Amino acid sequence: MPPMNDDIDLSRPLRALKRFAWLVLLLAVAAGAVTYLLFSRQTPVYRADTMILSSGSQTGNSKVNDTLVSAPPLPTGAVEGALQSANVQGAVRRRLGEIPELSAAERSALSDRMAQAIASGKGGILKISGQTDVYGNGTYVLSAFDQNPVVAARLANLAAQALIDWDTQRGLVKVNAARDSLRTQLADLERRLEQTGPVVGTPSRLQQTLLTQRAARLDDLNNLLALQQAVVGSLTNVAPAPVPLKPVSPKPLRDAVLVGAFVLLLLSTLLVIWASVNRMVTSDADLKLLNLRLLGEVPRIRLRQGQSLLVALRQGRWADSVSFLAAGVKSVLPRGDKRPPVLLVTSLFGGDGKSNISAALADASAASGDRVLLIEADLRRPTQGTIWQTTAPIEWVDLPGAVPFPGEESRDLMAALARPVTAQARRLRDNLHLLSSVPNLHSQSQPHVPAEQFRQAVAQWGAGYDLIVVDCPPALAVADPIVLAPHAAGVLLVLEAGRASVGSVQRLLDALLLVNANVLGVALNKVNPREQVARYGYGYGRNTVPTAVPRPESRAV
Question: Where is the Polysaccharide chain length determinant N-terminal domain (predicted)?
Fold first, then answer.
């Protein structure tokens, strides 16, 4: 068998998305609904915005420029850092008493929150955004957040005024430094003048020089004190904060949509990854990777109360699916070779429905006129007796080559293999007989079908039947299918759609090829009727005659 193709197959993730779309959408909607409920119960928070203008040091008027003392332009990020500093927020905290809407407890809690914001360097109550050009011109938007819209507006205006006051004090830094320098120089001149003695009559030359310098320094100090009143900052509040009307958070509808979209994207991504990594057999395209043909699909059966499984398989779309599968198996099963017409039916796991498929195939073949023997080779969990359970009395028939005496009949598989001359089978309907199994509950060892006795028995019984269907146990659980497969004309694998991985099927195929088994193809069981293919492709198996499997018209389910 050629190696499996490791190329990326986009059809697999797309099928997985289509198959689980309802579940993904349901989980996304549920996540959005939970988010909406959680956020809709939160206390609303309002944001009040005030606009602050930043202007450069030049006004365009020379007289104004010569009269005013302007602060230098603020560098990028300076305003944001100043707002979160202890200077500005400390001034705001000291003026919280100017907000009458705050109670004493609320004022204390707000002050503590602002203190925590200062300590952590993260602003959660006051924020500012904006930028300036290289000349210091631009705008800033200062925002304040609170559960009370009036408090938010007052807090934004207080913060804006505190920020402007800080900016004005920044412009006084150099003026205050020059003032302190002049006062120091005057003190030094006064000291030196005292050392020359009292000024009587005409001052000396040194005294005259010191007096002239003192007068000049006094004149400079008076001018500087006058300019101190004209110092301005680069920030101006041009739009005080109005009282906000709508809260900025929470927004339950927006958050619900975002969370739902995120969950939808996350689950879809995980589903695509899972479908790409866990390559499950779900359709004809998956079997092509294994060089296997799809012989038929049987939809999942939902039995009504008291309805028999066999009766359901004979009705409606299940009967059509079983008939198609029986025709496909018959067309590819080798005829006329040395091996008897034995069809061995097995699966990967228990619960895949291989016993139901075995019974349905045997029933459909007998209905078409073939003489069929159904052998139940699953010694651990025999189920054919339950499937064919009827109220009619049991009728026994001799198997080919058997001449039993009364009281010596062998009516189960192990006894029939041990004594073929006394073997009898149960008559189920015209042309259909059943050789069932009886589990040995008292044996300490696990029962196995003896391969050599099986080979001899089916060679003898094959002369009296057109088809022998052998219901074997799951191949990954028991070794019987691998042991018996060389003595069968063909092996049919029954897989539950979406349950078996490509890797596990590949391992089973490798084991069957090692014993020179003829794998006819796959019957997909428990297929979702909505996912059933509209038409079936031709076979592409290796050990088959070049006979095309018929393509029936698809049926809407």
Answer: 6-65
Please say if the pLDDT value at position 225 is more than 80. Answer: no
Same domain assignment for residues 116 and 17: no
Q: Are residues 178 and 257 in the same domain?
A: no
3-class DSSP assignment, residue 63: helix
**Are 384 and 362 part of one and the same domain?**
yes
* CB burial string 295-316: b at 16+ within 10 A, e below: bbbbbebeeeeeeebbebbbee
542 falls in which pLDDT band (50, 70, 90)?
Answer: very low
Look at residue 525 and tell me if it is in a domain: no
pTM of this prediction?
0.57
In a domain, 103, yes or no: yes
Q: Which helix (H) or strand (E) holds 428?
A: strand 424-429
pLDDT tens digits for range 367-401: 999 999 999 998 888 888 888 887 678 899 999 98
Rounded distance between C-alpha atoms, residue 417 and residue 403, angstroms: 14
Band of the pLDDT at 359, cuts 50, 70, 90?
Answer: very high
18 inside domain? yes
105 and 35 within one domain: no
Residues 6 or more apart whose CB falls under 8 angstroms from that of 463 comprise 340, 400, 401
**Which residues neighbour 545 within 8 Å (Cβ) at sequence distance 6 or greater?**
332, 334
User: What distance in Å separates the CA atoms of residue 283 and residue 292, rounded to the nearest whole number?
Assistant: 11
Q: Give the pairing type, strands 138-146 and 231-232.
A: unpaired
Give the total number of structural domains in the chain: 3
User: Would you say residue 62 has pLDDT above 60?
Assistant: no
- Report the run of H or E that residue 143 belongs to, with start and end: strand 138-146
Question: In whole angstroms, what is the distance from residue 241 CA to residue 47 CA?
Answer: 10
Q: Give residue 323's identity as a one-letter amino acid code.
A: S
Residue 241 and residue 150 in contact, taking contact as beta carbons nearer than 8 Å: no
- Together in a domain, 134 and 26: no
In the prediction, which pLDDT does 339 show?
Answer: 64
Tokens for 454?
A: 């099986």
32 lies in a domain?
A: yes
Give the separation between CA 521 and CA 326, rounded to whole angstroms: 12
Which domain does 129 fall in, by range?
46-239
35 with 130, same domain: the answer is no
Counting beta carbons within 10 angstroms of the beta carbon of residue 373, is it exposed (0 to 12), middle (13 to 18) or buried (19 or more)?
buried
Binned at pLDDT 50, 70 and 90, residue 520 comes out as very high
CA gap 102, 84 in Å, rounded? 22
Q: Are 394 and 489 members of one domain?
A: yes
When pLDDT is averaged across residues 306-335 and rounded to a whole number, the result is: 81
